[in-house]
Amino acid sequence: MSRGTTAIINFDNLRHNFDVLSEMAPGKLVLVVKADAYGHGLQQIVKALDKAECFGVATIDEALLVRKVRKNVRILLLEGYLDENELKVAIENHFDCVIHQQQQIDLLQQINCKGKKLNIWLKFDSGMNRLGFSEKEFQDAIQLMESHEAVDELILMSHLASANLRQSNFTEMQAEKFLKFHTNQQLSLSNSSALLHGNHLKDEWCRVGLALFGVSPIETTMAEDYDLKPVMRLQTNIIAVKDIKSGESIGYSQTYIAEFDMKVAIIGIGYGDGYPWSLSKSAYVKINNQKAPIVGRVSMDMMAIDISEMKDVKIGDSVLIWGDEDAASLPIEIVAENANTIPYVLLCQITSRVHYQYVNQ
Ligand SMILES: Cc1ncc(COP(=O)(O)O)c(C=O)c1O
What we know:
This protein is an alpha/beta fold. It has two domains: 11-217, TIM Barrel, CATH 3.20.20.10; 232-359, Lyase, Ornithine Decarboxylase, Chain A, domain 1 (Beta Barrel). Helix content is 27%, strand content 25%. The protein is built from eleven helices and 18 strands. It has helices at 11-24, 34-39, 42-48, 60-69, 84-92, 102-110, 135-146, 170-179, 192-197, 332-338, 343-348, and strands at residues 6-10, 28-32, 54-57, 74-77, 96-99, 118-124, 151-158, 186-188, 205-208, 232-244, 249-250, 256-257, 262-267, 284-287, 290-295, 303-306, 318-322, 355-359. Helix 3 (42-48) crosses helix 4. The longest helix is centred in the first third of the chain and has 14 residues, at 11-24. The two termini are 26 Å apart. Bound molecules: pyridoxal-5'-phosphate.
């Protein structure tokens, strides 16, 4: 029997989500695959999405990993190049680059592009207050880039701060500010939330990450509300079964005291695999579609679950941590809510000792 802690990545569901999102987006998609494709495995995901036109990544290293497996696809550096060396690598490898500040324009002016051209995504700060030119600076930056000999396509972009909230007019306000600069350029504003909400612009490049992996970024909603299917199923095995007497404690710091005689299973996943320690209370996993509450603190490699009500549960049985779109499902959106976090964090913090299995390739 193995510990069995495995992330099963379902390519059928990935391709299903790609088709659903392509149908929703009237323009084109940038598939955001930074942070190891939100914990799903960068190169495997990129290879599977053979209909994709453009992938978005955060770092030059991620961009190079994508280029290794996809020679001709567009790869967008979402923070652009950060120094001269990165700019040279970007030119060599035909990366699309975000330019969000003057220092990047200066680098482009200084360097000899040797006749090569770049696609530039010029970023406006419409209210996120993270990256992007201010209202004062943006018009000049557009003019400069439109007439720059090293610029091939110019796309105007901005990033939304609150598209995931159900009650907010901030997205509208950001879009209004952004569109003031628009004449005839290509645009890119929406993320997954804006697209799923139907708040996207006509003909823009929507930059979708979380939704591609079959998870809803919008508060109080689930992936299935948008016909999306979770790409990851995280599972583990039962590694021990114990009888606990009423009054005995379970786990570190004795935070859980049994109120009656009970049966617990010890399962092979803990915070050393990326499972949140904060889920020591109020959360559950599933065995054969039945809820098994977590009892006591999550430890580094294991945690205890209450199986008192379950019949025929034994060492080696499989335990669902999150995922699946059928009746046995335990949506990651629910796990995140119980852990007082967001699904993005749960996916990104899965650690390297978790095994990955790719199915329906
Ligand atoms: C600039 C930018 N665009 C798009 C995205 C995709 O966002 P989401 O995963 O919510 O679709 C991100 C993700 O953080 C981002 O930083």
